[in-house]
Amino acid sequence: MPFRISARCVSPPPEADVDDFAIEVNDLSRRYGRRWALQRLHLEVARGEILMVAGPNGAGKSTLLRVLSTISRPDTGTVRIFGLDVVNQRLKVRQRVSLLDHRHFCYGELSAWENLELSGRPGGMATEEVVELIGLKGREQDPLGSFSAGMKKRLALGRVLCQGAEVVLLDEPYAGLDPEGFGRLEGIFASLAERGATVLISTHQVARVAPHCHRALVLREGKTAWLGPANELPHDGELWSRQQ
Q1: Which residues are within 8 A (CB) of 208 and not within 5 positions of it... i.e. 6 or more apart?
Q2: What pairing do the DSSP bridges indicate for beta strands 76-81 and 50-54?
Q3: pLDDT by residue (tens digit) across 178-236?
Q4: So where are the chain's domains?
Q5: What's the N-to-C CA distance of the chain in angstroms?
Q6: What is the pTM of this model?
Q7: Cβ neighbourhood burial of 105 (10 Å; 0-12, 13-18, 19+)
Q8: What distance in Å separates the CA atoms of residue 197 and residue 59, rounded to the nearest whole number?
Q9: Nearest-CA neighbor of 150 among 107, 183, 189?
Q10: CATH architecture of 21-231
Q11: Which run of H or E residues covers position 240?
């Protein structure tokens, strides 16, 4: 069953059956030139879990999400999404995963409504509902070229909701948002949770995101520095420093 967000963050059952895992990462390493972005990472994420991925710049947060989305390939180790290998079965994985990063992938010559309609998949939220949720009611028929950067980011978030993916990867979702978008992002988190989506949120906005998550993973230099319930996340300065 999907987890529910409550006033206190909750963690998944410690002995979840293997069939309950949406994401399985085993001994994952990824290198760029001589630098290891991820080093022998192990991670299991349950179906319906919301996991915050935090850490200093260069810790490997974005790289992890790119591997999970099949954009980047592991150098060593295995990664499975609902039992599907992200290398050998990447086309099937892409049908079940949605990634939001700094690239918006919206069509500038189309209206916001048309962009959302093009993104729609079975199981995704209705366009009208998404327009309300992201705060673009009254502007949905305007061309994207008339939007501010913050409005475009809200539209990109809306496209994720229309896609209805089972695994949603949000890479720094607060980056580039306007003030209204900041307030609406919490509603987006709640909508994803209600749908039972498995969500990974890479962020520096730890205080904002942690209350909406079940667990938190802190990366440092590509390794797991801490993993546990989000409401028990330590504030140790050494944990958050870039150097070990």
Answers
A1: 174
A2: unpaired
A3: 888 888 898 899 889 989 999 999 999 999 999 999 999 999 999 999 999 999 998 76
A4: 21-231
A5: 38
A6: 0.88
A7: exposed
A8: 25
A9: 183
A10: 3-Layer(aba) Sandwich (3.40)
A11: helix 237-240
